[in-house]
Write a structure and sequence with these properties.
Blueprint: H1 3-31, E1 38-46, E2 54-63, E3 68-76, E4 94-96, H2 98-111, E5 114-117, H3 120-129, E6 141-142, E7 152-155, H4 157-160, H5 167-170, H6 182-196, H7 199-211, E8 217-225, E9 233-242, E10 248-255, H8 259-264, E11 277-280, H9 282-293, E12 298-301, H10 304-313, E13 322-323, E14 333-336, H11 337-345, H12 352-358, H13 369-384, H14 387-405, E15 412-420, E16 423-435, E17 441-449, E18 474-476, H15 478-491, E19 494-497, H16 501-509, E20 518-519, E21 529-532, H17 533-541, H18 548-554, H19 580-599, E22 605-614, E23 617-630, E24 635-643, E25 668-670, H20 672-685, E26 688-691, H21 695-703, E27 712-713, E28 723-726, H22 727-735, H23 742-748, H24 759-775, H25 795-804, E29 810-811, E30 817-818, H26 828-847, E31 854-862, E32 865-877, E33 883-891, E34 916-918, H27 920-933, E35 936-939, H28 943-951, E36 960-961, E37 971-974, H29 975-983, H30 990-996, H31 1007-1023, H32 1050-1059, H33 1065-1084, E38 1091-1099, E39 1102-1114, E40 1120-1128, E41 1153-1155, H34 1157-1169, E42 1173-1176, H35 1180-1188, E43 1197-1198, E44 1208-1211, H36 1212-1220, ...
Parallel strand pairs: 1-5, 3-4, 5-7, 6-7, 8-12, 10-11, 12-14, 13-14, 15-19, 17-18, 19-21, 20-21, 22-26, 24-25, 26-28, 27-28, 31-35, 33-34, 35-37, 36-37, 38-42, 40-41, 42-44, 43-44, 45-49, 47-48, 49-51, 50-51
Antiparallel strand pairs: 1-2, 2-3, 8-9, 9-10, 15-16, 16-17, 22-23, 23-24, 29-30, 31-32, 32-33, 38-39, 39-40, 45-46, 46-47
């Protein structure tokens, strides 16, 4: 910020404080004016062309409470031709000569005490020039401070310049939108003044309405004293209540000592209407009141001072209760009901009787303190709670009418304008979006103002102008932006904005005509309207409108980079706020960031530190890393020290061992004492210690006598001279979310990283996190380069990397750093938790008796208030499926509450019996009895149901939550935990559980149905049965399962036939139209026309991250002009694999290219301009993308019938429908149906070629298509086409014979090798950079029936230093089947040779390398024959890849591929011991479980 701007900001801050002071003092002065004094509001209008020419006068005479005594609007006769209204004058105006107006105004000024005007000096100048009134010669003085003169002049401008105004007052007509009608403006001043002086009370009422929870407890208090002695308490009444009325308590006491009170107590007219009156001594009443006051948050009183004085007299301590006066909500408060009246009715005081009448509340005389307390409660609830629904109901009606009455053709324009934070008149960005109600977007624009590009926000508002997420920003002159915006506004019907009033004011200021647009506040829908999304929010949630960010969070819309004018019309994911307490914490932490930014000198040194320990003993320090730097990024020192004494302690089981991978300099191996001494000296020189979760580091520093007492923890805006900064706190303050680990912080902040858990690296990364947050910079010091992809990496390795990358990421083979963003693997803690859950299943199966009773429970609630319960259901049953009782009951009291917006309302769709309607108390009583009879409670996410049971005093304490194999006598079972134990995955919803377990279901969210379905989930998991009690027939299943076996039973076949519907006439017509397209393309498109077939691949977890493009230009006769597959360079690290295979490196028709996205887009754009027709499989998504990058596709028409446009869009799914008269199917199914061989789908280049082949096959009807694969290579095609492994598709003879031979080999092993023969499976791991260096060996000795004789994993001692990780993961320390041995290679070789002598058959993956190794260690394997066919040998070598090929009649080359295909669970491949076990498992599964015949 330059010096001039700083001065302006400081000046503005001073002015702001001055305005606020004037505002508060002036409000207080006006408030103290007597009620009978008269005010005159005055406004004088002049000609537009000549400011000296007075055209109209408007004035009102009124009292302080708003009572209007006179209203006058006079048009000056002499200047009639210069008035603003033309020939049509306002209805309430009169035309008078100037002299007549002057005389009348002079007389009125003589009657009044106070003159009010807006910018009143200008008005008084005119009255002085016209000799009406001269202030300098008058008794009137200007009111500017906390003094109330008898005759005063008030400038309304002083009351509206402060930011202390309540938001509701900012919506008043005056002075923000002057009407330029002097009569109206004078009248608006009356309304404004009436409300403005009660600003504090209005704020307080607004805060109570919106910020106090419905569960907080209030106590209304009334204390009556003796008429003779005000200090003598006669009677006391109080009423305890909450806003939601869940708790209500009424009490009335007469003080025994007061004889006068006792005399009046029998009076019938003073009878207490809300309970029983008790006569007690004052001390007893005091004790009773103290008990009730314990849980109270707010005291309400009509006479606060008197009642508080009496409470002190009763020895009641109310010191924690703070008197509430404005918008600040205290935890414990005292509320004066007179302030509530003032805030609602804008009067100084109002008696209880008057207020009851005003609110139409029935009451009798007010001489009973207990009744009065209740009346106060009724008034309070009426004014605070019941005010809300009317307004919100109106907004809700508005939502419905927008839905129903505005048609889809109408255009909406959503607008946002960003300004410089220190001067709102300097506009920096504009964003607007034109759209329709159905979500169609016609235009979106984000424009940065060229003239103001130097003004950047940062201090109060983030500067996100460069981060437009939905297209490209443009930089234009302000005049050009305004011109374009003006043109767009003229085209639309409705303006939409979040708090749109300020935008409308701006539009009016630049003469954009918005008068035709009406503010939509009610159910009326005008032709041209203004819609505020805050009003829509209020109507939707029946609560106060909130800011854009909170709206996005509440509506669960992902977002990011707010305060970019273009984004504020859209959303993208970034963060979610926690509850209010956490938000307060995050606010304080965000203050830490600002304080560091603005209050710490650039010269102050910081030290970031990280300490690594041995994973099995945290007291053994293995490494220490630190970095000394300044906040501007200057690095003074960086250090990575390895502790010499502990160099033999290696991590690797839980934490990777990266001590030798310091990326930012040289590591040093030193004695611990030397490292500590050096660290101590460096800490003495710095001001601030920085760490990620720094508490442990501080504890260590203290333990080695490094004095850190001078360093203070920084948790708020206070800046000490010596401080401790935790980057986890900075992260929380930056993102308003809970802190995360260092790796997740780096990912979120987009800082490249590698080799975490090296103390030196971590210290640098901590510094980078600190600097990125504090300086908000794009690049941080010492930032490592972004990862580079290695072209041609094979599919197996990619899959391996995705499944086995460790926490620190993996490296690509060219030395770049590969930062994977795939889903993390299950942690050991997760696996342990799932193991515990699986124990629950076994315990229930084996240890719970059959006679024990289970009760399955479900409770449904109203979707907008979960305290309102609508249905109950429970089912009592036994473990064998015997159902003892089932019950579904609808709550009578809440029958009128209906779901439907977020949750379907299926209360009347109970599928398993008859529903009953009963009162809530009867339901609870019956449920209570049934729960007493059972041993186990079962539920899907059962905790909410238990909370409810406890809330109705149902004792569930005897039921213990089942967490492991222990079986209590009375237990609680959550079916989500059982699901996790069965599938070793996080628990899912009831619907997903039913789908996974293949249990038919329908009409969820009916409590009775949900109870039965939960019981069925329980029974299915426990008993592993095919059918469960009360199972629905298949037609009622909501989700179709495509995984059913092809040979279903006859019954199912018949059922499916019944379910099939005949194609409607509409479908037949549609398919006929599509068949016309085929004929038209075949007959009417010339052979020289060019077609472009396009496919785009995206990251499976974010479709906006594009990973590949493929396109092909060709002619109708099959001539191929160009074919292209391009991998997007920027997104090369985003790998599919969980839901979509990652085949980017498997382009079958040429060479792939790796290019930047903009280069690909430019080339594609040029090619599209050269063609006549675009072809695609479900081409809509591709077209949308092309439009988003400004590729003009408007000339291409979608072809729907026989008409042939010059430029067209052809969807091969439509062609398929026209050929087969059925709905379009996926590309793979099209290829199978058309008998086109294929392989490696989901490679954009391949998919493009296959789509072209589908097009040409349908159009030309030829047997073969260009670039057709041979069926030998078409592995996927063959697998899909096979009905079973027994009947493979015909292949070329040579390949078919090989697979047939392998198939015979399986049968030979199965039937011709005896069970007593011994097998040895072998796996060898080598160093990735030199295959001659052996790092591990693993082998398993076993028999054909699965008996394991020996399991061995050996790490080669002399080669331990050779570590993989760049291409192949280093998993040598992750042996899953026993203990690893570390031995010399010669010893391992000797042991292996001995074992080989004992076996008959060697089993491996790839025979050549294993045999070569065995020969190198002089193992006698000459008698082992490689087995490739049905011939049996006494000693043989069996390759499991041959067995897999024989089973599936296709080629297998990869261990992981085989495990997946055979559905064998696996983990930590490339550990030789694990691989040997997996080779054995593949062998046994194929031999023992699959029955193959020749």
């Amino acid at each position: 910020m330059d010096v001039e701007t700083k001065k302006k900001v400081q000046s503005k801050d001073i002015n702001k404080e001055a305005y606020k002071k004037t505002f508060c003092e002036l409000c207080h002065a006006i408030k103290t004016i007597e009620e009978n004094k008269l005010f005159l509001s005055l406004n004088i209008g002049t000609s537009k062309l000549d400011r000296e020419c007075v055209t109209e006068f408007g004035w009102c005479i009124f009292q302080k409470n708003g009572t209007l005594l006179k209203k006058k609007h006079a048009i000056v006769k002499e200047n009639l031709k210069n008035n603003r209204y033309g020939e049509t004058l306002p209805e309430d105006s009169v035309v008078q000569e100037l002299i007549s107006i002057k005389e009348e105004l002079q007389k009125d000024i003589e009657k009044i005490n106070y003159i009010i005007g807006h910018e009143v000096n200008d008005t008084l100048d005119i009255t002085a020039k016209l000799d009406i009134f001269n202030v300098s010669n008058s008794k009137f003085v200007f009111m500017k401070e906390n003094k109330t003169p008898e005759y005063g002049i008030i400038d309304i401008q002083d009351l509206c310049s402060s930011r202390g105004l309540d938001k509701s007052l900012k919506k008043l007509v005056y002075p923000f939108n002057k009407t330029n009608n002097s009569g109206k403006d004078a009248f608006n001043m009356v309304n404004f003044l009436k409300k403005i002086i009660y600003n504090d009370m209005i704020k307080m009422v607004s805060s109570i309405r919106n910020n106090i929870s419905d569960k907080k407890l209030f106590i209304c208090l009334d204390i009556e004293s003796s008429e003779q002695n005000p200090d003598s308490i006669r009677e006391i009444g109080w009423c305890v209540f909450s806003m939601n009325e869940l708790i209500t308590k009424n009490k009335h006491f007469i003080v025994k000592e007061s004889t006068m009170m006792n005399e009046n107590s029998s009076s019938e007219e003073n009878k207490f209407h809300y309970g029983e009156t008790k006569i007690l001594e004052l001390k007893e009443i005091s004790e009773e009141f103290k008990k009730d006051l314990k849980n109270i948050h707010y005291i309400l009183s009509q006479r606060v001072e008197e009642d508080i004085r009496h409470l002190k007299q009763m020895a009641v301590d109310v010191t924690k209760f703070i008197r509430m006066k404005d918008l600040k909500i205290t935890e414990y408060g005292i509320i004066d009901m007179n302030d509530i009246y003032s805030g609602v009715y804008h009067v100084n005081t109002m008696g209880l009787d008057e207020c009851l009448k005003k609110n139409n509340l029935k009451h009798d005389n007010l001489k009973n303190a207990g009744n009065n307390a209740n009346y106060l409660k009724q008034i309070f609830k009426k004014l605070i709670i019941l005010e809300k629904p009317k307004k919100y109901d109106t907004y809700n009606e508005l939502i419905k009418n927008i839905r129903e009455e505005i048609n889809d053709e109408k255009l909406f324009l959503c607008l946002d304008i960003e300004a410089f934070e220190f001067d709102q008149k300097i506009l920096t960005e504009f964003g607007w979006c034109i759209f329709r109600k159905d979500g169609t977007i016609d235009k979106k624009i984000h424009a940065i103002v060229k003239e103001n590009i130097k003004y950047r926000n940062k201090k109060h508002v983030p500067d996100n102008r460069e981060y437009y997420l939905f297209g490209e920003s443009v930089t234009q002159n302000l005049s050009d932006i305004e011109k374009e915006l003006k043109e767009d506004i003229e085209k639309v019907n409705y303006l939409v904005g979040q708090g749109i009033e300020s935008d409308i004011r701006y539009l009016n200021s630049i003469k954009i005509h918005t008068s035709k647009f009406e503010k939509m506040k009610s159910s009326k829908v005008p032709e041209y309207g203004i819609i505020d999304t805050m009003d829509i929010y209020s109507g939707f949630y029946h609560s106060k409108g909130v800011g854009l960010e909170k709206s996005l969070i509440k509506l669960q819309l992902p977002y990011g980079r707010l305060h970019n004018a273009g984004h504020n019309n859209s959303q993208k994911s970034q963060k979610k706020l926690s509850d209010s307490k956490e938000t307060g914490k995050y606010k304080n932490l965000s203050k830490v960031i600002k304080s560091i930014q603005y209050n710490i000198s650039v010269n102050k040194p910081f030290l970031s530190i990280d300490i690594e320990t041995y994973e099995k003993d945290k007291n053994i320090i293995t490494e220490i890393g630190w970095c000394v730097f300044k906040s501007d990024g200057v690095i003074k020192k960086r250090k990575h020290a390895i502790v010499e004494e502990n160099v033999d302690y290696h991590n690797g089981n839980y934490i990777p061992d990266h001590r030798n991978n310091f990326l930012f300099g040289r590591s040093e191996t030193q004695k611990l004492s030397g490292i500590e001494e050096e660290l101590k000296k460096d800490i003495e020189k710095i001001n601030y210690l920085v760490g990620h979760g720094i508490k442990n580091d501080i504890r260590y520093l203290n333990s080695i006598n490094i004095n850190t007492s001078k360093f203070e923890n920084m948790k708020n805006s206070k800046i000490p001279e010596f401080g401790i900064i935790d980057t986890m706190d900075l992260y929380s303050g930056f993102y308003y979310t809970r802190a995360v680990g260092l790796e997740k912080s780096l990912l979120k902040l987009q800082i490249p990283y590698d080799k975490l858990h090296n103390a030196g690296n971590d210290a640098i990364y901590i510094m980078q996190v600190f600097l990125k947050i504090v300086n908000n910079c794009k690049v941080v010091p010492l930032q490592i380069s972004q990862p580079k992809a290695k072209d041609g990496m094979n599919d197996g390795k990619e899959k391996f990397d995705k499944n086995h990358n460790n926490s620190s990421g993996s490296s690509s083979s060219n030395g770049g750093h590969n930062y994977q963003t795939n889903k993390p693997k299950k942690s050991r803690k997760e696996i342990e938790r799932y193991r515990e859950y699986s124990k629950i299943i076994k315990a229930i199966q084996n240890n719970i008796g059959r006679k024990k009773l289970f009760l399955c429970l479900d409770i449904e609630a109203f979707e907008k208030n979960h305290d309102i319960l609508t249905e109950f259901a429970w089912c009592m049953f036994k473990k064998d499926g015997t159902i003892v009782k089932k019950k579904h009951v609808i709550v009578k009291e809440t029958m009128h509450y209906h779901n439907g917006d977020h949750v379907p309302d299926h209360r009347y769709d109970y599928l398993f019996g008859k529903s009953e309607i009963e009162e809530l108390k009867n339901i609870e009583e019956e449920l209570k009895k049934d729960i007493e009879q059972v041993n186990y409670l079962v539920g899907q996410g059962v905790s909410n149901d238990l909370r409810y049971l406890n809330s109705i005093n149902m004792d569930t304490s005897k039921f213990e939550k089942m967490k492991d194999a222990k079986v209590p006598e009375y237990g609680i079972i959550d079916t989500m935990n059982m699901y996790s134990g069965l599938y070793y995955t996080p628990g899912v919803s009831l619907e997903k559980s039913l789908i996974k377990l293949r249990i038919p279901y329908e009409k969820l969210h009916n409590a009775g149905n949900d109870t039965i379905f939960t019981m069925q989930v329980f029974i299915k998991i426990i008993n592993k049965c095919k059918k469960v009690p009360l199972q629905l027939s298949r037609p009622k299943v909501k989700n179709n399962n495509n995984n059913n076996n092809t040979n279903n039973s006859n019954n199912n076949t018949n059922t499916n036939k019944k379910l099939k519907k005949k194609k409607s006439k509409d479908e037949s017509v549609k398919f006929k139209e599509y068949s016309k397209i085929i004929k038209a393309v075949k007959n009417n498109i010339a052979k020289n026309k060019l077609f472009l077939c396009l496919d785009i691949e995206a990251f499976e977890y974010d479709q906006k991250l594009l990973t590949e493009f493929g396109w092909c230009i060709f002619k109708k006769d099959g001539t191929i002009i160009k074919k292209k597959q391009a991998i997007v360079k920027e997104n090369i690290n985003y790998h599919n694999g969980d839901h979509v295979p990652d085949h980017r490196y498997d382009y079958l028709f040429g060479e792939s290219e790796i290019q930047e996205l903009k280069v690909i887009e430019e080339e594609l754009k040029n090619d599209i301009e050269s063609v006549n027709y675009l072809v695609g499989q479900g081409i809509g998504n591709d077209l949308r993308y092309l439009n988003s990058i400004n590729v003009n596709t408007s000339k291409f028409e979608k072809m729907k019938n026989s008409q042939i446009p010059q430029f067209g869009v052809i969807d091969t799914m439509d062609l398929y429908s026209g050929l087969y008269y059925t709905n379009g199917v996926s590309l793979e199914k099209s290829l199978i149906k058309l008998q086109i061989p294929y392989d490696k789908l989901h490679n954009a280049g391949n998919d493009t070629i296959f789509t072209m082949q589908v097009f040409l096959k349908i159009i030309n009807g030829s047997e073969t298509v260009p670039l057709q694969l041979s069926e030998l290579n078409s592995t996927e095609y063959k697998e899909e086409s096979m009905t079973s492994p027994k009947s493979p598709q015909p292949k070329p003879k040579k390949e078919s014979n090989i697979y047939q031979e392998y198939s015979k080999l399986i049968n030979t092993i199965k039937y011709n090798i005896s069970k007593d023969k011994v097998f040895l499976s072998l796996a060898i791991e080598v160093y990735e950079s030199d295959p001659q260096i052996i790092t591990e060996l693993g082998w398993v000795v076993f028999k054909k029936d699965g008996t394991i004789i020996k399991n061995k994993h050996a790490i080669v001692k002399e080669n331990k230093k050779y570590k993989n990780g760049k291409i192949i993961p280093d998993n040598k320390y992750y042996y899953s089947f026993g203990k690893s041995d570390t031995q010399k290679l010669i010893m391992i070789g000797e042991e292996l040779k001995k074992d080989i002598k004992k076996v008959n058959y060697l089993v491996g993956q790839g025979t050549d390398k294993d045999l070569q190794f065995l020969k190198s260690i002089k193992s006698n394997v000459s008698n082992f024959v490689v087995m490739k066919n049905s011939r049996v040998h006494k000693y043989g070598f069996i390759d499991i890849m041959d067995l897999c090929s024989g089973l599936y009649l296709t080629e297998f080359v990869n261990l992981e591929e085989s495990l997946k295909k055979l559905e064998i669970p696996y983990d930590k491949l490339h550990n030789a011991g694990n691989d040997a076990n997996y080779i054995m498992k593949i062998f046994l599964k194929i031999i023992n479980e699959i029955n193959l015949t020749n």
